[in-house]
């Protein structure tokens, strides 16, 4: 597949998104941008959130992770399921009770201005880094397979990628995102199933024969790791960490919750979350099977894993086989559509939620005149786009590991203060010395960092995995307890 054809396909794809944006963006007001006027059908939100929850990281990085970690990621996914149940019955009723646009407004009501700002800043940092990880991955693929041929610098690739998102999200906001995410989820799942089916044919097997084969069981298919409690992959760490990752990265994340808050009421938002939970177990399992198929196909046809700057990039195995693996044009086209859909279904909502949080939590947009509100929102949307561009370019020079492992590692540090703040607010009745919250949050992150760095030496070889997020939240919770001032 030529770079020119790839560019044409991307152009046609975004033309469809712009058409959706034009239709949904006619009602260009802040209520539509931030909450979709609270008229979003829950089942549409639920289907679209599959794509937003998975993103380009799952589409490429999870299959690429199978070679080194087998199916250990399923342990984390099972933890996600427990986390989504908690979100449905604990957090969603809370958000609807307060009728808030930004979920961090709860911290204002519960503790005060400083807690509100610390929560919002934690989200902004977390989401900027998370969205940049995801966009970095798709920009890397486009650069490797298209823009390098034209000698276009990586920085220009990033600018174009973010610009495309900015254009179709600038007017309709979350109202547009809900419908574009639905289309993009459909493309992503179609690509997953079709490419998997083609690989099964090429390997002369079927789905059930493959997952029950000796090669699969011994080389790729181990899910539960229980031999060494000190290992990062131990099942108890992964499930516990996965549950809290879901609570933090979905339930305490404005990006993900903004879609839920667009539903008409609490019950419909809960239906959305409860249908999403089992769906993600099935879809993530299929992505891991796809990874095993890709490695089997690569071994059979002696396809080497691509390298960039002298480093092996397993994240690029899927695109390498889909575009250069002699599987036909249909696979190449569907892969590209699936990749673009997966990447942008999370990145577009991230840009919208960043705009929402900054406008509501820091600029107090709701206190301004209607004309000033719209102008400020548009300017913030543009500035957030520029922040993403700078962060993605920075990542190119520092990332070396698999992208999803980096993403979850960073989340353990940035979401910890949010987990501690919300937990303390929900499970205690204490007020706190609000001005001390920033100090507590920073101290918790520092303690978490040193605990992670020295755990092997101090804890008899113990290595923190995804449960590091829980430790961070616990440090924050304990810190907040030390600055409590009274009991109500």
Notes on the protein architecture:
By secondary structure, the protein is mainly alpha-helical. The protein contains 20 helices and four strands. It has helices at 3-24, 30-35, 42-69, 73-98, 105-110, 113-147, 154-169, 174-202, 207-211, 214-220, 235-251, 254-260, 266-300, 317-324, 329-362, 370-396, 403-414, 416-427, 437-458, 468-482; strands at 307-308, 311-312, 430-432, 484-487. Strands 1-2 form a two-stranded antiparallel sheet. It is globular. The chain starts with a helix and ends with a strand.
Overall pLDDT score: 82
What is the ordering of alpha helices and beta strands?
A: HHHHHHHHHHHHHEEHHHHHEHHE
* Count of alpha and pi helical runs: 20
Query: What shape does the CA trace take?
Result: globular
Strand content bin: under 5%
Spell out the key features of this protein.
4 strands; two-stranded antiparallel sheet; mainly alpha; about 500 residues; two-stranded antiparallel ribbon
Secondary-structure blueprint of this entry?
Blueprint: H1 3-24, H2 30-35, H3 42-69, H4 73-98, H5 105-110, H6 113-147, H7 154-169, H8 174-202, H9 207-211, H10 214-220, H11 235-251, H12 254-260, H13 266-300, E1 307-308, E2 311-312, H14 317-324, H15 329-362, H16 370-396, H17 403-414, H18 416-427, E3 430-432, H19 437-458, H20 468-482, E4 484-487
Antiparallel strand pairs: 1-2, 3-4
């Amino acid at each position: 597949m030529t770079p020119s054809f790839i560019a044409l396909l991307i152009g046609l794809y975004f033309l469809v998104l712009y058409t959706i944006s034009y239709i949904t963006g006619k009602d260009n007001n802040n209520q539509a941008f931030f909450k979709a006027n609270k008229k979003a059908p829950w089942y549409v939100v639920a289907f679209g959130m599959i794509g937003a929850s998975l993103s380009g990281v799952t589409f490429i990085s999870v299959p690429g992770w199978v070679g080194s970690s087998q199916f250990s990621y399923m342990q984390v996914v099972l933890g996600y399921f427990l986390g989504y149940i908690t979100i449905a019955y604990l957090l969603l009723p809370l958000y609807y009770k307060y009728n808030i646009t930004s979920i961090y407004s709860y911290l204002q009501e519960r503790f005060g201005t400083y807690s509100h700002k610390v929560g919002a800043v934690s989200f902004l940092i977390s989401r900027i880094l998370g969205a940049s990880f995801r966009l970095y991955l798709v920009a890397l693929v486009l650069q490797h397979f298209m823009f390098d041929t034209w000698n276009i610098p990586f920085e220009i690739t990033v600018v174009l990628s973010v610009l495309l998102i900015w254009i179709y999200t600038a007017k309709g906001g979350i109202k547009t995102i809900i419908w574009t995410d639905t289309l993009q989820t459909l493309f992503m799942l179609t690509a997953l199933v079709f490419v998997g089916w083609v690989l099964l044919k090429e390997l002369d097997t079927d789905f059930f024969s493959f997952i029950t084969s000796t090669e699969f069981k011994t080389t790729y298919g181990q899910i539960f790791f229980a031999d060494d409690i000190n290992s990062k992959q131990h099942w108890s760490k992964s499930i516990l960490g996965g549950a809290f990752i879901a609570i933090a990265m979905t339930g305490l994340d404005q990006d993900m919750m903004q879609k839920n808050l667009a539903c008409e009421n609490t019950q419909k938002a809960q239906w959305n979350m409860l249908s999403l939970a089992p769906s993600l177990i099935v879809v993530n399992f299929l992505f891991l099977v796809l990874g095993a198929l890709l490695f089997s196909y690569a071994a059979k046809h002696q396809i080497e894993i691509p390298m960039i700057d002298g480093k092996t990039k397993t994240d690029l195995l899927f695109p390498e086989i889909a575009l250069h693996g002699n599987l036909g044009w249909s696979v190449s086209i569907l892969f590209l559509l699936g990749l673009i859909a997966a990447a942008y279904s999370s990145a577009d909502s991230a840009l919208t939620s960043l705009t929402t949080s900054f406008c509501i939590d820091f600029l107090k947009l709701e206190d301004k005149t209607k004309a000033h509100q719209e102008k400020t929102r548009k300017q913030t949307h543009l500035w957030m786009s520029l922040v993403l561009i700078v962060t993605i370019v920075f990542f190119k020079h520092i990332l070396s590991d698999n992208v999803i492992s980096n993403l979850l590692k960073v989340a353990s540090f940035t979401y910890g203060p949010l987990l501690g703040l919300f937990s303390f607010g929900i499970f205690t009745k204490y007020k706190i010395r609000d001005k001390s919250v920033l100090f507590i949050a920073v101290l918790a992150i520092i303690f978490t960092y040193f605990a992670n760095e020295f755990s092997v030496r101090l804890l008899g070889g113990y290595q923190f995995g995804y449960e590091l997020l829980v430790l961070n939240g616990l440090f924050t919770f304990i810190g907040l307890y030390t600055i409590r001032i009274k009991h109500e």
